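## tool: complex_structure
## caller: assistant
## args:
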Amino acid sequence: MIELYELGGLEDRRYSSFSWRTRLALAHKGLAFSARPVLMTDKAAIAFSGGTTVPVIRDGETVVRDSWQIAEYLERVYPDRRSLFGAPTGHALCRFFNAWTDRVVMPAAFLALACDAIQVQDPADRAHFTASVEKVAGVAPEALRPKQAEHFARLGKALEPARATLKRQAFVGGDAPCYADYGLASVFQWARIVSPVAVLPDGDPLGAWFERVLDLHDGAARRTVAFR
Amino acid sequence: MIELYELGGLEDRRYSSFSWRTRLALAHKGLAFSARPVLMTDKAAIAFSGGTTVPVIRDGETVVRDSWQIAEYLERVYPDRRSLFGAPTGHALCRFFNAWTDRVVMPAAFLALACDAIQVQDPADRAHFTASVEKVAGVAPEALRPKQAEHFARLGKALEPARATLKRQAFVGGDAPCYADYGLASVFQWARIVSPVAVLPDGDPLGAWFERVLDLHDGAARRTVAFR
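## result:
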């Protein structure tokens, strides 16, 4: 069975958005896996991977790290399972979508929710998490709280191209989900695991889409410790 | 032969970015066409289409307007020609890419270049163009000139997900172009037709990619009245 190494927080919260991309990619392929939580600061636990970040998977003798690399690995090694990318053009466009998620959506969500996310970190990881927030925001997580509404508004605006798209089709991948759905959904999944606050207003087409993603693969993403 | 109705400006500049999406989609499919310039304010010329905007194509008895609708029409009616979308997942992801281009890239480019674009409008269209700039920017085109450098910087930042992608692959569509390439390229094509100013700094991967697009289909996009 494939082993997945991922971040774990308080109350066994599996909060890493990148790990959720891998979890949903594995579920999409119908591949069973066991997940092992590690602390952000426990680099020894994943030293075998040759890197310092999760997710990492071990599939038999093969070790792969980085959620995008893992998705490409799964697509290459399990070509008979349902495709994550849907042919070369889809694969190339998923790379763009992934870059958009990482460079536009994630930073906006991080600014909006870091003040909550600090609360679910394991005490051993809090100083590291706080330092990473200070690096990008210039202030400690709690100092971002007064600006949460403003940051939600910016996030909502940043999501506009996805919102426009998901008014017209069920998934980013069309009638069926593709890896791009899992990338974007991983941000909302992180949000519901780290914060009790609703990211999207009622009636937002992105909310209905995210519910559809939570329903996929027998509710693979719904069944986890979360606030909402 | 397919007829294309598109905007025309001074010195026969075919400046409409949306029209270039259609031109490149037609070239991609290997379909011959003749292009007829119309003024932005000459709604009578395209009344036959049932709408008030170009591009419009007439293919035999069929009239189609709106560049995205035209692309879908061409893909549906000419399935034996090279695909614009590359299967359903690619089609769905192109819709997102198109939304990103329209809602993020185009507005940023418009603010940066409206002060130049006014210069190439036919005198009959200038009041209309000025009014459309005032509607989105709150000021007349020439008043945007002092902020051009700042708007270029914003455009450059908005393009970051595409830049990251095109460092790793030749086209947005991967090894070969797809409709997403034509959508993004249409903005740079508009820029080189309406302005002598370089949008991208030397060495930007997006510049090398745009040159590749200009080379496609026997230089279909390169051969037009432009500043650069």
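## assistant note: The first helix of chain B runs from residue 17 to 28. The two ends of chain B are 30 Å apart (CA to CA). Handing back to user.
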